[in-house]
Specification:
Layout: H1 4-22, E1 48-58, E2 67-71, E3 86-94, E4 103-113, E5 120-129, E6 138-146, E7 151-160, E8 167-177, E9 184-194
Antiparallel strand pairs: 1-3, 1-9, 2-3, 3-4, 4-5, 5-6, 6-7, 7-8, 8-9
Amino acid sequence: MAGTLPKFTSTLVIFCTILLLSNAVTDGESHQFYRSLCPKKMGLKQEKLSHLHFYFHDVVTGLNPTCVRVAEAPTTNTSETWFGAVVVIDDPLTEGPEPSSKLVGRAQGTYTLASQNEVGVIMAMTFAFMEGKFKGSTFSILGRNMVLSNVREMPIVGGSGLFRFARGYVQAKTHILNFETKNAIVEYNVYVLHY
């Protein structure tokens, strides 16, 4: 038994050395997959709720269209709902409903006409702001928009700048829709939680 203790001790020392070496940091960098962070140490203060109100101008026809159809299914031309079309947008966001109203940002992204039975789109777009407190900040939405419904709600899925870690929702309400030109002005009320 007297010889067992030194063997156990040297085995324990070797095991501990291997364990320490396996956890050693190479060149001062840790290679772990994840770690928990303290929001305060990242400069995040108390979360707040902001309400934004603006108008979205979707111009399909005219001298300067802000949305362009880039793809369509073979059946799009015969579909009453334009099912299968994909549109890219760069729509102005203004303070008021008039196109001449003060520009506060742009909505950039895509929407896909994704309903066979009614005019419904899946919207994936980022609202980029160029005025006021949120200048240089963005938030993104991804959701279903049943265009002919009175009020549509879509989720906010993230953001940048002052909208980092953003979450919330937008409510879209058609202000004007010209069925002949397909041009529309949509009122947006945004409720966004952010730091």
